[in-house]
């Protein structure tokens, strides 16, 4: 005679299987949602504006997306490790004006480039040390360093634009094109390949995911989690420095106000791409798609004559919706 418990076991097993299948479906749904949203946006803007799908406009979107993508690749590491960096826009501005000062005063363009990159890396190192050694949450640390970096940039420039003339610098860092492709897009491709390999195919990438996924378990497994967090914040600062050089080359000047609100675009792109705001999971490819989604949204709204104030509101709504959806599907 079959017991009541034996009769219940198949039903319980079916419920477990159903729950597992639904979990997989939710994960896949979230992974593909950003691609679907990008396609829908592109189709909608193509119908709304005949200029949208022209080759020149698509290349323009890619060029405008380059800096957000590059810094977003680094931010993917930071968020996956369970931290955040709000100072990227201000650090980018400071790196920009530092390089511009060197160029304006007749300095070598290579020296100017190194100065800009080192400025970004040093702020990343400061953020990392205060987070890992002083045990101050990275949200508060980078919020403070955001004010420090922006304040220094405004003070040393007197809030003025630093103009220079240096063709080797501007051509190398993104003012021109190589064939039909803008140099800034090529830099984006280089950083994408580098960070993708580092994240997916090295032990550093696995340690970053372990640190953000379960900090205690990672430590017991022998991972130096403080070193990993420090590393992610340093490369975030370095990426901000690179973004500063690219922006300076495109503008032919260093501007202390550049990068204001950039952290909003970067974080939106990374989260939309599928990286968890709560750590442990990230995707470099998704970040690229998320950045392009933000670029398409900005470009399309401009073509439709919608002002920047409304764009900021829309991006804020997107971030809230992305986090809400991530929490519901995790």
Explain this structure.
This protein is mainly α and 330 residues long. The protein has a single domain, classed as ABC transporter involved in vitamin B12 uptake, BtuC (Orthogonal Bundle). Helices cover 77% and strands 2% of the residues. The protein has 13 helices and 4 strands. Strand 2 and strand 3 form a beta hairpin. The two termini are 42 Å apart.
Features:
77% helix, two-stranded antiparallel sheet, 330 residues, 13 helices, globular, mainly alpha, ABC transporter involved in vitamin B12 uptake, BtuC
Give a brief description.
With 330 residues, this protein is mainly α. It contains 13 helices and 4 strands.
């Amino acid at each position: 005679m079959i017991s009541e418990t034996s009769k219940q076991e198949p039903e319980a097993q079916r419920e477990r299987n159903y729950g597992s299948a639904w979990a997989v479906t939710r994960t896949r749904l979230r992974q593909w949602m950003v691609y679907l949203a990008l396609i829908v946006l592109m189709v909608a803007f193509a119908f709304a504006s005949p200029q949208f799908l022209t080759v020149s406009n698509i290349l323009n979107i890619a060029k405008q997306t380059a800096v957000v993508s590059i810094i977003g690749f680094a931010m993917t590491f930071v968020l996956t490790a369970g931290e955040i960096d709000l100072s990227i826009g201000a650090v980018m501005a400071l790196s920009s004006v530092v390089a511009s000062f060197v160029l304006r005063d007749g300095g070598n363009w290579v020296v100017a480039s190194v100065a800009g990159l080192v400025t970004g890396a040093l702020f990343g190192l400061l953020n990392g040390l205060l987070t890992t050694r002083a045990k101050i949450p990275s949200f508060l640390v980078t919020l403070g360093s955001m004010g420090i970096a922006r304040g220094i940039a405004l003070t040393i420039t007197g809030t003025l634009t630093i103009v220079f003339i240096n063709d080797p610098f501007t051509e190398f860092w993104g003012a021109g094109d190589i064939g039909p492709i803008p140099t800034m897009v090529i830099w984006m491709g280089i950083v994408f390949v580098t960070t993708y390999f580092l994240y997916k195919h090295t032990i550093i990438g696995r340690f970053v995911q372990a640190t953000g996924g379960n900090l205690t378990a990672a430590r017991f497994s022998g991972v130096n989690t403080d070193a990993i967090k420090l590393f992610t914040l340093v490369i975030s600062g370095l990426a901000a420095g690179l973004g500063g050089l690219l922006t300076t080359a495109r503008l032919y000047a260093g501007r202390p106000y550049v990068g204001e609100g950039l952290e909003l675009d970067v974080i939106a792109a990374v989260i939309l791409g599928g990286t968890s705001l709560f750590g442990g999971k990230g995707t470099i490819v998704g970040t690229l798609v998320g950045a392009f989604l933000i670029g398409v949204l900005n470009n399309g709204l401009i073509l439709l004559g919608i002002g920047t104030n409304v764009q900021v509101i829309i991006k804020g709504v997107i971030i809230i919706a992305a986090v809400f959806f991530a929490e519901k599907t995790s």
